């Protein structure tokens, strides 16, 4: 019964990962020159590669900035649309709409928002006397601009999971808390939030994975610039593999990404999983 799923998992996940690691231990073949075994040389080269170091740092900042913000915003939106307010069907559609938009379309739309001088953001800030700036062309704001876009697009998707979790909570818990005189904030902090922790763990893992596989927005909006200020790991893998045609070094960087994601998954499942399920 499990064999078909196991074959697909091995063929499209485990086997490519093993082959990527094997490829990272060889030189990239060029022309008639065959691939030569170099061992861990590519991994040693990363330590002296300033672009890789910058991409790793940018990805860490990007993940630490977008994941908590996306989760908090998704939880807030789910609580709002789960309450007894008028027009909540329209709110649900509005919150979820960014999720169904194509990545390239979203990037081009926000590219207009960030356009210096006449973009929507500068036009809005101009109403309050602020001067416009080159949001995507400034090393201090380029990465942050991508992070705002990511939070806006992903929060609606995560909201669906929180909304489903909220609707599984028994109304009797709220009625019992009301009889005891508990306020809404106390009930949320002591009852609702702990019961949402399994969903939060699931969402957190997906959010971290998404933060390490972003490439569409970077290609359309910044191309990693200026001065690698918005270069992320997967975009650097794309450049190394398809622009510089060094597939072996790109494989080594990919292995590093897999190791980072595996460590994050181990920490989240191995440590946090014990603290988020209740019986």
- By DSSP (H or I, 4+ residues per run), the number of helices equals 13
Query: What structural class should be given to the helix and strand makeup?
Result: mainly alpha
Count of individual beta strands = 0
Helix content: over 70%
**Percent in strands:** under 5%
**CATH homologous superfamily annotation:** MetI-like
Shape: globular
- At the fold tier of CATH, the topology name is MetI-like fold
Which consecutive residue ranges, at least 5 long each, have pLDDT under 50?
none
Distance linking N and C termini: 30 Å
CATH class: Mainly Alpha
CATH architecture annotation: Orthogonal Bundle
The largest pleated sheet is described as: none
Order of helices and strands: HHHHHHHHHHHHH
Q: How many individual domains? A: 1
């Amino acid at each position: 019964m499990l064999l078909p799923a196991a074959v697909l998992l091995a063929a499209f996940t485990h086997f490519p990962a093993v082959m990527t690691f094997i490829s990272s231990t060889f030189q990239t073949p060029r022309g008639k020159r065959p691939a030569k075994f170099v061992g861990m040389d590519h991994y040693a080269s990363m330590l002296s590669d300033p672009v890789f170091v910058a991409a790793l740092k940018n990805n860490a900042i990007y993940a630490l900035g977008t994941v908590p913000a996306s989760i908090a915003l998704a939880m807030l939106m789910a609580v709002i649309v789960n309450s007894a307010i008028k027009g909540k069907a329209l709110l649900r559609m509005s919150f979820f709409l960014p999720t169904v938009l194509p990545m390239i379309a979203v990037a081009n739309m926000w590219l207009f928002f960030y356009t210096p001088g006449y973009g929507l953001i500068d036009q809005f800030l101009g109403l309050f006397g602020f001067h416009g700036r080159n949001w995507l062309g400034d090393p201090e704001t380029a990465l942050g601009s991508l992070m705002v876009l990511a939070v806006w697009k992903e929060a609606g998707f995560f909201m669906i999971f929180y909304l489903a979790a909220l609707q599984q909570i028994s109304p009797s818990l709220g009625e019992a808390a009301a009889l005891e005189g508990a306020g809404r904030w106390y009930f949320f902090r002591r009852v609702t939030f702990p019961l949402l922790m399994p969903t939060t763990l699931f969402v957190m893992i997906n959010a971290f994975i998404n933060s390490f596989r972003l490439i569409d927005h970077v290609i359309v909006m910044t191309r990693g610039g200026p001065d690698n200020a918005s270069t992320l790991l997967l975009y650097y893998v794309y450049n190394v593999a398809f622009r510089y045609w060094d597939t072996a070094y790109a494989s080594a960087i990919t292995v590093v990404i897999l190791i980072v994601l595996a460590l994050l998954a181990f920490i989240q499942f191995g440590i946090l999983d014990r603290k988020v399920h209740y019986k």
